[in-house]
Amino acid sequence: MDKAQLEALRARYADAGALDATDQGLRRAAAQVKTPSGQRRAPYAGLPTFLDLPCAEDATDLDVAVIGVPMDLGVSNRPGARFGPRAVRGIERIGPYHPTFKTVPMASARCADIGDVPFRSRFSLDQSLEDIERFYAALHAQGVRPLSVGGDHSITYPILKALGRNTPVGLVHIDAHCDTMGAFDGSKFHHGGPFRLAVLDGVLDPERTIQIGIRGSSNMFWEFSHVSGMTVVYMEEFMQAGVAAIAERAREVVGAGPVYVSVDVDGFDPAYAPGTGTPEVGGLTPREGLALLRTLGGLNIVGADVVEVAPQYDPTTNTVQLAAQLLFEEFALMTLGRNAQTGHP
Ligand code: MN
Ligand code: MN
């Protein structure tokens, strides 16, 4: 570098601030994340919320509400997903800028962390599922789109009941398991069966459903997925076809109608996400999962979740780090729809 170039750099950057970019897009994003005082918020201080969003008790005026569902009475093996929401709230150094979409999602929609679903009893799975449905039906009636952190995967059934009551939704589902299993031990309500129940209730359209990352020793339980017309992408096929091809298939399957996105962290390899109740080796990498989700921009996403985060099995905290990032990806997708409607940058 010659002296003149160095002088030019000094003149431009020696006294420039952290958010002082030349690029117009980055400058606009910087303006959206600036606090009134000009100070950056410390991610380790203050009361933790999902993605550092503001808190709200009342969801009336929101586009997107982030909700914790600390309930794991539906697990078939290791419990602990009730601790997922608190742990994910603790990871705040995610976003606010989305590098692929070049947006600041929290500035693109009215959004807040509205706390956790209130449960009548910590002892009753059946009652808890009713509580969830009632809570989400009220949000849906207000036009608020829910973004949830579980909890075990049984929570997605009452959420779909609330969202799909009038129009059945499509589904993009990342998981090691299809979760379309029948009843066992006297209960059809458990984390291995929410999507069978949702189809049978007429709130989930199996022909607009794609399940990605399926593997492990439970394949004998997934007949319902195939018979009902779901698209099931086993891990072997995922590896052969690659992310781009599977992403294209997902867009084809769900089409333009309302779609729900449900991500079970056990879809990811336990090397990255050991903090979950039913880990299965040989899963997606975070790179693959993020790449896949980032192709879903423009879908009509009516709700999304990240479930089965059981942080106590992961002393590295990598699982909650991944879960918070996945939550941010879903959040970004949900606000892209909003951008399309409002023309917001
Ligand atoms: Mn699941
Ligand atoms: Mn699973």
Task: Describe the protein.
Helix 11 links the parallel strand 7 and strand 8. Helix 10 runs parallel beside helix 11 (286-293) and helix 11 (286-293) runs parallel beside helix 12. This protein is globular. It has helices at residues 3-13, 24-33, 84-89, 105-108, 125-141, 156-163, 194-200, 223-228, 235-241, 243-254, 286-293, 318-342; strands at residues 64-69, 111-116, 145-150, 169-174, 204-214, 231-234, 258-264, 300-307. Mean pLDDT is 95; it is low at 339-345. It is 35% helix and 16% strand. With 345 residues, it is α/β, with parallel strands linked by helices. The protein has 2 domains: 1-40, no CATH class; 48-336, Arginase, Chain A (3-Layer(aba) Sandwich), CATH 3.40.800. Strands 2-1-3-8-7-4-5-6 form an 8-stranded parallel β-sheet, sandwiched between helices. The protein has 12 helices and 8 strands. Bound molecules: manganese (II) ion (2 copies).
Classify the helix fraction into a percent range: 25-40%
Note the overall shape: globular
Task: Provide the domain count.
Answer: 2
CATH T-level fold name of the largest domain: Arginase, Chain A
- Give the percentage of residues in beta strands: 15-25%
* SSE pattern: HHEHHEHEHEHEHEHHEHEH
CATH architecture assignment name of the largest domain: 3-Layer(aba) Sandwich
Mean pLDDT: 95
Task: Kindly name the structural category.
Answer: alpha/beta
Radius of gyration: 21 Å
Please supply descriptive tags for the structure shown above.
single chain, 345 residues, alpha/beta, Arginase, Chain A, 2 domains, eight-stranded parallel sheet, 8 strands, 16% strand, globular, disordered C terminus, binds manganese (II) ion
